[in-house]
Amino acid sequence: MSFDDFRRDFIGLDTRYRLADGRLARRHYLDSAASTLALRSARHVADELLRHYANTHSDLHFSARIASHAYAWAHGQALELVRADPDRYTACFAGSGCTAPLNRLARTLAMRRPERDVALVSLMEHHANDLPHRKHAGQVVHIPLTGASPALGAVDLAALERFLEQYRGRVNYVAVSAASNVTGIVNPVHDIAALAHAHDAWVVVDASQRLAHAPLAISDTGAAERELDAVVFSGHKLYAPGSPGVAVMRRALLEGCEPDEVGGGMVEDVYPSGYRLSARFPDREEAGTPNLVGAVQLGAALSVLQRVGMQRIHATEQERLRYLLAELSAMPGVRVYGDPDPERTPRLGTVAFNLNGLDHGLVATVLNDYHNVAVRNGCFCAHPYVRELLKPELWALDLDPDADDAATSLKRRQGMVRASLGLYTQDDDIAALLAGIRDLLARPGHYRTLYDADTDGNFRHRTFNAAAKALFDPEATLDRALARLSATDDVL
Questions:
Q1: The model's pTM
Q2: Residue 450: how many CB atoms within 10 A of its CB?
Q3: How does pLDDT run across 89-107, given as a tens digit for each residue?
Q4: Which of 7, 10, 77, 470 fits a 20 to 30 Å CA distance from 225?
């Protein structure tokens, strides 16, 4: 299979919608930072597995043997993706994204070293890699970023080192994203690991926005001091919707500590007066019946990415990203957030921007309704980071982004538009986005008259209504499937 064939192997690339001007057009999906489309070949593996479906934790009948083997294979693909030594690391599945594994890690690491009551968390984190540490880790100190708003860069290593010294002996771990879900800016996670390990602190990396775009290894050089202690990511951002979240962790972080969740499959035996935990990884960390189909679909997607080559995927995306950044930066009236120089501050396939004088909600809505370009708007579950990027604009409006009631007073001003790329992104997708932006900049007044905004900042067209049920009705779809089944029964 050629690289181009592979990039077309996704479900939903030919989806069409009727637009506000009456045209029937193909969707341009630029919302991959939220969730990616499904890799068809990986979905095929999951569908084939359903022919053999059974629960895991047994190998005494054919189907259970197949299920257990396939589930173990999926774990192995996660370890291979980040080049983790299976003798020292384990891969665990949990939840439906990185939120569940990160909550579990925060609780586990806090229990392991209660005397270390500080977690250092970068300012750019998604809520999934911020709020669990606030809840479980004791005191959270946010690490600032390089540069100045709105052109903020990566984590400030000098500031990180100062905090490690300031809280010497108290820092339990550093939590940082491998790449921002807002700007795509890449953090030097292995440099961060070396600094943290010099102070006997662990490093937890949220790689959800990295691994679909670029390779990431447990250690970039093979040196032990540059190893990451835990890497967490979401399957639904890696071309496997419906798959679990993943944590690749040092076994030493978990050994000798009771798992966060208990139940079937993670014990050796249970007595009226107690129970004996399993020593096997990852079984002891995965209580209950697993999301077998989702995990195997994810394992297949990870296998495909490795076969194609993450370096090749990264190089191809960088060409489109740099073109998009250059085009947006050259447009009068467009503000791009984060350090715009990819040579100084590496970025992956996510770009956040605003248009002068136009609400981010209106921009996203018009791009959808008139150009069939799917982008996301708002704060992307990274409120502190977005407010920091927006500070100069908010100050100009005499609004204080650091006020306790900021979320209320900034309701509609606080936000951006985000376009994010995937393996399937083509030149015509970028062209459609740029054409839509030029159209908005050329006719802002025209589009303002077509929409009403509610108090939450959602914009609704005054005459065009594309209700979700009219576009896809689960009940009607089920009725058609049952009707076909009935027709088949009649024939038989």
A1: 0.94
A2: 18
A3: 999 999 999 999 999 999 9
A4: 77
